[in-house]
Amino acid sequence: MSDPRLTDLARQLPGLKLSTDPGDLEHHGRDWTRRWPPAPLAIAYPGDIAEVQGIVRWANAHGVALVPSGGRTGLSGGAVAAHGELVVSLDRMNKVLAFDPVDRTLTVQPGIALEAVHNAAREHGLVYPVDFAARGSCQLGGNIATNAGGIRVIRYGNTRQWVAGLKVVTGTGELLDLNKGLVKNASGYDLRHLFIGSEGTLGIVVEATLWLTSPPPASQVMLLAVPAMDALMKVFAEARHRLHLEAFEFFTDRALHHVLAHGAQAPFAEAHPFYVVTEFDACDEAAEAAALGFFEQCMEEGWVVDGVISSSEAQAAALWRLREGITESLAKYKPYKNDVSVRISRVPAFMADMQALLAEGYPDVDVVWFGHIGDGNLHINVLKPAEVDYATFVAQCEHVTTLLVDTLERHEGSISAEHGIGLVKKPWLGSVRSDAEIALMRGIKGVLDPMGLMNPGKLL
């Protein structure tokens, strides 16, 4: 390697896999945002914790910034390497290390795919309940770094609730072993939670111990056609009252249009403005009767005009595809994305304000929105018109986002629900965090990463 810094890294860690192949640099230098041209120095593929520590110490000696890299399925520019950083890919650290049947914990390396975690838990008759559409490609380290949520937050919460312990290499190369799987540990600050959601700006997750739980009861999936936006939360309230919910999601007619164009099957003969997909316990006749009663009540009230309930696993998967296939169906348009949240009680008023804002801000643009309405999280995807150049498009979207942030502030919401701040949302961090909070965050980073080499420019 021609760069003397990389020559020194190879000398210090002779077993470390390094690549400067142009294809690897492009692949590992960007995430799903595709907004910043990738330009990393090289890609390092550590195989164990000692190599991660060696990389961080080398980076401190040479003043080289580091970008931790998982599956790079992020949507906020958090895994972008555009300024000569060394990308630290965790692809090789992808193993299950241990299972404890008494504690019901699974210890894994950070490069393991979420789907592999699900499969490993299932082998022991248990489940790791955090789930989302990118399960096959996203990696657990990235899930932890963004405190990922997904489609089952309504029952199980975010990633944070399922991390029993973490091993982390800080910005100085020190290894921290945090909480060690304890259920109770009243011994001061729980630094484990400081690293969850820190977007790789404080250190690199090198091992995680996860709590597992019992499989949920048998469930069914119901897809509902909803005629008006103001009926969505009425349907949710009725579902939460009558059913034991595992998930409650919604999407618009435009979202369904793109998923159908991507190969899914139309669920109804006619199109409708909004759709709800919900999964709920159906373990006995009483639960099934409650589901029927819920549907009939919604029809009588006029909140729902059509519906279908799954009668097999295959049909349930087909109904879920209509929701989970949205992001993939939009990828070719390089959409500008907003990922926002408000308290559940504020959803109806916020959605009304948001719909008016989007109609005014994007009068001739295809805007696709959907989300985890049961936990107050909405995803907005703005599709670039073919005749508009990308820079002009992003500038227009950022102007509308500034107005959206004003709306969120009125409703005490957040510009980032589950995708992190990264590069994309950094201008609006102050809408969610006070000056005092941001100053403390900078101070914490200064302690754990005094040279500012851990994923610099992201979040702060």
Please describe what this structure looks like.
The chain starts with a helix and ends in a 12-residue tail after the last helix. It has helices spanning 4-12, 22-28, 49-62, 114-123, 140-145, 153-156, 191-195, 232-242, 253-261, 285-301, 313-324, 326-330, 347-361, 390-410, 435-448, and strands at residues 17-19, 42-45, 66-69, 86-89, 96-100, 105-108, 163-170, 175-178, 203-211, 219-226, 245-252, 274-281, 306-309, 336-341, 367-372, 377-382. It has 15 helices and 16 strands. The chain has 460 residues and is α+β, with helices and mostly antiparallel strands. α13 (347-361) packs antiparallel against α14. It is 35% helix and 20% strand. The chain folds into four domains: 4-89, Uridine Diphospho-n-acetylenolpyruvylglucosamine Reductase, domain 2 (2-Layer Sandwich), CATH 3.30.43.10; 96-211, Uridine Diphospho-n-acetylenolpyruvylglucosamine Reductase, domain 3; 219-327, Alpha-Beta Plaits (2-Layer Sandwich); 334-419, Alpha-Beta Plaits. InterPro entries: FAD-bd_oxidored_4_C, FAD-bd_PCMH, FAD-bd_PCMH-like_sf, FAD-bd_PCMH_sub1, FAD-bd_PCMH_sub2, FAD-linked_Oxase-like_C, FAD-oxidored/transferase_4, Oxid_FAD_bind_N. Keywords: FAD, Flavoprotein, Oxidoreductase. Belongs to the FAD-binding oxidoreductase/transferase type 4 family.
